[in-house]
Design a protein that fits this description.
This protein is an all-alpha fold and 97 residues long. The protein has 3 helices and no strands.
Length: 97
């Protein structure tokens, strides 16, 4: 698994989802995503409880990496969008005045 490729993909995904924030996409949906995947992992039949525990811990670490990268880029992009909207508003006001 190439961690750098995963981080780049998550970064791009976060920026893409930020574009949908005006339509109701919220970062807290990631919590729902994590809960659902943990539910699926819990349904897997494991050889023993140690294997299950290791799988859940690995998933949590992996998921945290994904979510951190996603949230960073989501936040960065939403800030950029707000700044661009302010610039447009200022230009419109300047044209009016």
């Amino acid at each position: 698994m190439d961690q750098q490729k995963i981080l780049i993909a998550c970064y791009n995904l976060g920026r893409t989802h930020a574009e949908y924030s005006r339509y109701g996409m919220k970062p807290h949906f990631l919590d729902i995503f994590q809960q659902q995947l943990l539910g699926q992992i819990a349904c897997i039949e494991y050889e023993n409880s140690k294997e299950m525990e290791e799988t859940i811990i690995a998933f949590i670490h992996f998921n945290n990496l994904i979510i951190e990268s996603f949230l960073d880029s989501y936040s960065q992009r939403t800030t950029e969008i707000r700044e661009q909207e302010k610039i447009v508003e200022v230009r419109l006001l300047e044209e009016i005045l």
